[in-house]
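Predicting holo structure, 3-phosphoglyceric acid bound.
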Amino acid sequence: MRSAGQKTEQLLPVMTGQPVIPVLKIDRLEDAVPLARALARGGLPAIEITLRTPVALDAIRAASDAVPEAIVGAGTILNPEQFSQAVAAGARFIVSPGLTPALIDAAAASPIPLLPGAITPGEIMAAGDAGYSLLKFFPAEQAGGAAFLKALSSPLAGVRFCPTGGIGAKNADDYLSLPNVICVGGSWIAPDALVAAGKWDEIEALAREAAGLTRA
Ligand code: 3PG
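Done. Tokens:
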């Protein structure tokens, strides 16, 4: 297993640049560009387009090409093949719900940084051994929520998280106030119904509200 560390110099600016990273599931390719534009206008240029729909890679390509102000990342990356496909489509950062030896090798061979997921102390320590100290924490609410993350902050000091899963406008502050949380991720900024209806101004307003959240 190779490990060249996490490329934190590339990843940290993405995670510190905004308190919330929108997690997007794009069903219609034509939504990618106006959605990325609306989120950037609202103050959330970094977005994670998840590989959960057939058009996801094309959506990453379209948003990367047409929205220079956006920082387009790829999410739900489970294996090296998806890692390469997302990078080829223009993804500037890669997010995975977990971390495997195969993903560590793919990331080590790529100039593009990886934000991998870990939940348990053992998973977090194994990620640390592989050079990863910036981690996704997913599914946050279901795995124990802000109280769980807070309990990790003392024994596993030095690890910083982007929790996602079940986070919304109501509980984002619970996470953002923790010392070991840099940003949170979530789909609440781009609800399916607003995307389907092309209500880009409303999405921009949700983004602006999220962009105004404060961190510890
Ligand atoms: C993710 O992949 O990070 C989550 O699916 C986002 O979770 P949410 O839809 O509950 O915000």
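The mean pLDDT is 96.
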